[in-house]
Design goal:
heterodimer; A: alpha/beta; Aldehyde Dehydrogenase, Chain A, domain 2; 20 strands; B: alpha/beta; TIM Barrel; globular; oxidoreductase (chain A); Ald_DH_C (chain A); Acyl-CoA reductase (chain A)
Chain lengths: 491, 338
């Protein structure tokens, strides 16, 4: 054994106090669902974690009814300051139970504990703290005096950042005065259910937040329910399209946060070692299962070989394995179906003539695993340069001039994220200005902050989450703008 | 800058000739150093912090603690140093933990030049060539720590220490010259000091080039000075004298290790790195081991290629070591002071 084979340093799953079965969280209580229960497994071992209820159409209706009642009777009448107190309380409870939540997230999702511990859960708390502060200051959100909440929000979230996406959805909705019915992804319901316990602990009034677990049918019943006023979805572009279709012609307000094929542009004057770190963070963070991943590396031709060589050396130090080990850099893929897609697209990449490379790594025999992979010699027309792989697979392309870099970066149906690496401040501004991406990072990648709006252009969706802009998705300008007589209504 | 100086030739050090080529001048040296990619401070510090989160447990920790001892330059650099103090330091170097004779010895003792004879004498046979558990004598030189003296004083400071038996010379660069852009002057001085390290039999004392990164201030400067030190012939690049705050930091050491890695990639030659000053806890020292292993590779974790310059670190490592064997913490009364 050498030093670099660090001795195991596992976080213990024994700190969790999980139930064998989880019901639906409706009107402040766990109730059994009428659909067929399903199990959630650990993608690293394929071992059973818990049995989870599935919400039928009838259960979804009960949840919406509970949310409507809570909206009418309690939440919409409560002052912003009081709503803020609940949100602050939730944020503090998330911090208190951070270790437990991090372990549960890594267990259920497969992401490395160092990410759930240092990124996901701290951001969850930060999101609640941030929007707690907004709750009594809505008239400064930029919608004029006395903006109004919308009513019941139907929220459907993905499996890649289960609890963080929940926070992105619930925190602004509650701050703005809405009530919520949220459906977590079927492969990662665990932390949402632990979060329901936190809501009980926080004494949040019954029905303000309802959590219904289930698969696509549950989500569809939720977004199509006639009594929801707002639909917020994060997930695939295909499902986003369906939702846009089904909500068209209704009064439901819609925000979509969909796929991406982010370009990470490295110019020849970039701080090269940090750029390599940024490339790694851009595509191997969370096994690349990130909608804003920097999955297309656009590197200036003059430094291509040097960058690729450094990147390969760096990848050789990535530690793939047990998500609960504190030294793991790359964890398990969330599900067999995702793994299948990665394999399929990577094979196509090879067939199309791109050169495939992965560092030597021993993948566990059980569970879903995919090694960090780089494709060089990728052409712009290749499917691995166009389709979202949603895995630890990087496509390397080159450019010669800034104009070409911009054109190639924008040459995608998506428009979620991009990165620029250069020592030249003026170039950062000039290039960022021309990129059609909702988020542009300069000399960094995959950095999130609750004060910073996040969202896409084109097929990456519409609406923004985070910041003041994130509140707009859950507010409408007052019908009585300019009048202060109706102030109580929105707050 | 006076234009005349730009064309001035600098000492034809073999590494620089090979890498930069042509007629080595102040201008060609400057162009080369200024062509090195910049460092993004935020990114560098984030990477260092990430390396610092590695969790080193059980067998890995035991190996790490012993390795830290093997890589330590046990140091005393005080105006108040006496032969007696040096003797006591040497005794500690030879037997770090009298209660556990399996404890490895440190790599070297590091003293002021005038203390070299006392260190050599105290080490006795442990300083003989080929002795098992041999301990080197390192001497700081070149008007350490400020480096503010004439060239001739710096050179005789060096040759005196080598003549007295120093195996390693820790020199300081002229930070004033570096910061005013006189790279050629800094370069020439390192080359001259290297020559002063030559022994009558033609061998050289190992040269560690102290950059005093706390005075260079920016990571770009650290990186440039690292290249300069290597190009001029340094065997090691070293962060600090320990007399300036900040001394060694993880991001600074990481950026120097990146230069050493790039030099190895370019030439196949291995250069050593020595963080010195401010590393007092085992926990921090382990972060350096992780950073070395994941940046340049594990083969750098040997005394020829990596050293800690430290005085109080050793006792903390010994306490941690005792804890691993006994399962409980003892206390400062159970380790010796030197």
């Amino acid at each position: 054994m050498t030093f670099l084979d660090y001795a195991p340093a596992p976080e213990s799953a024994a700190i969790l106090n999980l139930r064998d079965e989880y019901g639906l969280f409706i009107n402040g209580e766990f109730v059994p669902g009428n659909g067929e229960s399903f199990t959630t497994i650990s993608p690293a071992t394929e071992k059973h974690i818990a049995t989870v209820s599935c919400a039928s159409e009838q259960d979804v209706d009960a949840a919406v009814v509970a949310a409507r009642r809570a909206y009418d009777k309690t939440w919409s009448r409560m002052s912003g300051a009081d709503r803020g107190k609940y949100l602050f309380r939730i944020a503090r409870l998330v911090q208190e139970r951070a270790r437990e939540l991090a372990v549960a997230e890594s267990l259920d999702n497969g992401k490395p504990i160092k990410e759930s511990r240092d990124v996901d859960i701290p951001l969850v708390a930060a999101w609640f703290f941030y929007y707690a502060g907004w709750a009594d200051k809505l008239e400064y959100a930029g919608l004029g005096p006395n903006p109004r909440s919308l009513g019941v929000a139907a929220q459907v979230i993905p499996w890649n950042f289960p609890l963080l996406m929940l926070a992105w959805k619930i925190a602004p909705a509650l701050a703005a005065g809405n009530t919520v019915v949220l459906k977590p992804a079927e492969t990662t319901p665990l932390t949402a259910l632990l979060f329901a316990e936190i809501l009980q602990q926080a004494d949040l009034p019954a029905g303000v937040v309802n959590i219904v677990t289930g698969a696509g049918a549950t989500g569809s019943a939720l977004v199509n329910h006639p009594d929801v006023n707002k639909v917020a979805f994060t997930g695939s572009t295909a499902v986003g399209r369906q939702i846009a279709r089904s909500t068209a012609g209704t009064s439901k307000k819609l925000t979509l946060e969909l796929g991406g094929k982010g370009a990470n542009i490295v110019f020849d004057d970039a701080p090269i070692d940090q750029a390599v770190e940024g490339i790694v963070n851009g595509i191997f963070f969370n096994q690349g299962q990130v909608c804003c991943a920097g999955s297309r590396l656009l590197v200036q031709e003059s430094i291509h070989d040097d960058v690729v060589e450094r990147l390969k050396a760096r990848l050789s130090t990535l530690r793939v394995g047990d998500p609960l080990d504190k030294n793991t850099d790359v964890g398990a893929i969330n599900s067999a179906s995702q793994l299948g897609r990665m394999r399929e697209l990577s094979d196509i990449g090879e067939q199309e003539g791109a050169e495939r490379w992965s560092p030597a790594c021993n993948l566990p025999s059980e569970g879903f695993w995919f090694p960090p992979t780089i494709f060089t010699n990728v052409s712009t027309s290749s499917r691995i340069a166009r389709d979202e792989i949603f895995g630890p697979v990087l496509s390397v392309l080159t450019f010669r001039t800034p104009a070409e870099a911009i054109a190639k970066a924008n040459n995608t149906p998506y428009g979620l994220s991009a990165g620029i690496w250069t020592d030249k401040g003026s170039r950062i501004l000039a290039v960022a200005d021309k990129l059609r991406a909702g988020v542009v990072w300069a000399n960094t990648f995959n950095k999130f902050d609750p004060a910073s709006p996040f969202g896409g252009y084109k097929e990456s969706g519409y609406g923004r989450e985070g910041g003041k802009q994130g509140l707009h998705a859950y507010l409408a300008p007052s019908a009585f703008a300019g009048s202060s007589a109706f102030k109580g209504d929105a707050r | 800058m006076e234009t005349t100086r730009a064309g001035t030739t600098v000492a034809p050090a073999s590494r620089a000739l090979e890498v930069i080529g042509g007629d080595l001048t102040e201008r060609s040296l400057r162009r080369y150093l200024e062509g090195i990619p910049g460092v993004d401070a935020v990114g560098l510090e984030a990477r260092a912090a990430a390396l610092g989160t590695r969790s080193i447990k059980t067998t890995s920790k035991a190996w790490a603690l012993d390795t830290i001892i093997r890589l330590t330059d046990l140091t005393t650099l005080e105006g108040a140093d006496t032969p007696g103090k040096v003797k006591s330091l040497v005794a500690k170097a030879l037997v770090p933990d009298p209660d556990d004779m399996s404890t490895p010895r440190v790599a070297a003792v590091c003293v002021y030049g005038d203390m070299v004879p006392h260190a050599v004498e105290a080490l006795g046979s442990a300083h003989d060539d080929g002795a098992t558990g041999r301990i080197n004598v390192a001497a700081v030189a070149t008007a350490f720590p400020s480096g503010r003296a004439s060239r001739s004083v710096k050179l005789s400071d060096t040759s005196d220490a080598v003549a007295a038996g120093a195996d390693e010379i820790d020199m300081v660069i002229d930070r004033g010259a570096f910061l005013s852009g006189r790279y050629g002057q800094v370069f020439d001085e390192i080359v001259a000091v290297k020559e002063a390290c030559k022994r009558p039999d033609g061998t050289y004392a190992h040269l560690k080039v102290i950059l005093e990164t706390g005075e260079l201030n920016t990571y770009d400067n650290v990186r440039r000075a690292s290249w300069l030190g290597i190009l001029a012939g340094g065997d090691f690049i070293k962060t600090s004298t320990g007399k300036v705050t900040p001394a060694a930091t993880l991001p600074v050491t990481l950026s120097m290790l990146e230069v050493v890695r790039d030099w190895h990639r370019l030439t196949g030659e291995k250069i050593g790195v020595k963080p010195a000053g401010g590393i007092r806890a085992s926990k921090d020292a382990i972060k350096y081991l992780v950073t070395v292993a994941e940046t340049v590779g594990e083969e750098w974790l040997q005394p020829d290629l990596f050293r800690f310059g430290a005085s109080s670190l050793l006792n903390d490592v010994l306490l941690q070591r005792q804890k691993l064997t006994s399962g409980r913490y003892s206390g400062p009364a159970y380790v010796t002071i030197d």
